[in-house]
Amino acid sequence: xxxxxxxxxxxxxxxxxxxxxxxxxxxxxxxxxxxxxxxxxxxxxxxxxxxxxxxxxxxxxxxxxxxxxxxxxxxxxxxxxxxxxxxxxxxxxxxxxxxxxxxxxxxxxxxxxxxxxxxxxxxxxxxxxxxxxxxxxxxxxxxxxxxxxxxxxxxxxxxxxxxxxxxxxxxxxxxxxxxxxxxxxxxxxxxxxxxxxxxxxxxxxxxxxxxxxxxxxxxxxxxxxxxxxxxxxxxxxxxxxxxxxxxxxxxxxxxxxxxxxxxxxxxxxxxxxxxxxxxxxxxxxxxxxxxxxxxxxxxxxxxxxxxxxxxxxxxxxxxxxxxxxxxxxxx
Length: 331
Known about the structure:
It is built from twelve helices and twelve strands. β3 (118-121), α7 (129-134) and β4 form a beta-alpha-beta unit. The chain has helices at residues 4-11, 15-23, 30-43, 49-56, 72-87, 101-113, 129-134, 159-172, 188-204, 217-230, 242-254, 288-300; strands at residues 61-66, 91-96, 118-121, 139-142, 153-157, 178-182, 209-212, 236-238, 264-269, 282-285, 308-312, 315-317. The model has no long low-confidence stretch (mean pLDDT 91). The longest helix has 17 residues, at 188-204. The protein is an alpha/beta fold. The strands form two sheets. The chain has a six-stranded parallel β-sheet, with helices on both faces. It has a six-stranded mixed β-sheet with strand order 7-6-8-9-10-12, with helices on both faces.
């Protein structure tokens, strides 16, 4: 690989002139600039990205920290972040932590040392509060709140309203015994959805039933067995996310329980798989792509200097796993 001195010699200029052309730190005479660019092309010179990032305090990179890249919600969100970053000339580096707080601390430290231009963080660990507060790299929390005002910004959907939507829809569909498969208490979005379900049950005079489940397909399989034993009269199930809803449907099929004739089912997120399965899954949709785009724009537009919160509205997407009664009135 050619060195910057070799490029300078080939172009007949000083190494500092080559550096100015590469980094755009000062105006260079057009004729000299053309000679430098031609010499770079002929020599195959590649600028040292690490050195450049140290000099500019920028690596033109957005860091993304997620608890599970196998969860389609985070995969789709990361895809939107990468696409948006690329449009602005930035790259994306993703860290998959499994929700482990020590791995998240390591990821923040690593990304900061790489001079990333910002970090999009999804975590449920409160133990990161001080690290985030002291981090010089701008951080935007997405989907899950670390703690209010800790990061530079917080982007999320109105999960409380989403929980209300799911519960009200099953009531509109004639369900009398609704079980809410709620996410773990430490996850802010899960707690908010569960509260929405609880409030609708109280308003409608329906007895509340719930069971906890992690946001994973395999956990959903195990939980469904317990659910059917604990609540044999269930006629409606609200899943904590679409992947768990799909696992619930799989267990119901194995037991020859018909959906939606015997039990009606609604998911949460509206991942791509929701409309690819048969029957297609009724769900409460989050604008996953818009949330990812907003996170990148907040970082690149320097909106994180003072705390900002953006709340998106959920959308009820009625498909084939619920069967609405005629004359029911809903959004």
